[in-house]
């Protein structure tokens, strides 16, 4: 299927992580020119070293208003105008019992997971609406926005706010801009595999080896597909929603969660 994306431009945040880098590659493979933003200079360098002439990397910390504003200005200057596509993927999260999450950590989680999206949309959406041909915004939320778990209280709350914001933006900017979200379930990314990541937390919690702890988690969550997802599976959904092929879809929440969410 031709997704009609060749020659379009995209601004992608959190572009160097597992899902973000998969989104960058998926869009670039469709002929999209991508401005890839992330705080991790080393991971960005790895994307840059792949040699795709259609990807421009940019290091920025989006946990502040100034970081969002400067990065958006750099992207707009690079494209000489607003992008056609905005993918909000930057985020942070880790497992912790509620009583161990202090105000500072709650605020830090919301600064990146929620306010970075608000600020980036504020900077880019007016220009996207003014441009001919409209545009598409795809925000990465989470299955936890609709089905929270006890070890992800701050993360889930920030994603629930994001889902509400996505719907509001879809109504505010239609019909020129479509605004949708993808809600991944557990996906194998560096948030799982890095030192101190989800696997280490599960290993300590269950007293099992890494692989056995992950299998125990999958069983406890009751994931019908019986495994974690992959970044490429999420990126495919993002690319579809970013494309004109989904031209009558806005305000939608697309679950890529292996069946974890049981509500309608």
UniProtKB/TrEMBL annotation:
<protein>
    <submittedName>
        <fullName>NAD(P)-dependent dehydrogenase, short-chain alcohol dehydrogenase family</fullName>
    </submittedName>
</protein>
<dbReference type="InterPro" id="IPR002347">
    <property type="entry name" value="SDR_fam"/>
</dbReference>
<dbReference type="InterPro" id="IPR036291">
    <property type="entry name" value="NAD(P)-bd_dom_sf"/>
</dbReference>
<dbReference type="InterPro" id="IPR020904">
    <property type="entry name" value="Sc_DH/Rdtase_CS"/>
</dbReference>
<keyword id="KW-0560">Oxidoreductase</keyword>
<dbReference type="GO" id="GO:0016491">
    <property type="term" value="F:oxidoreductase activity"/>
</dbReference>
<dbReference type="Pfam" id="PF13561">
    <property type="entry name" value="adh_short_C2"/>
</dbReference>
<comment type="similarity">
    <text>Belongs to the short-chain dehydrogenases/reductases (SDR) family.</text>
</comment>
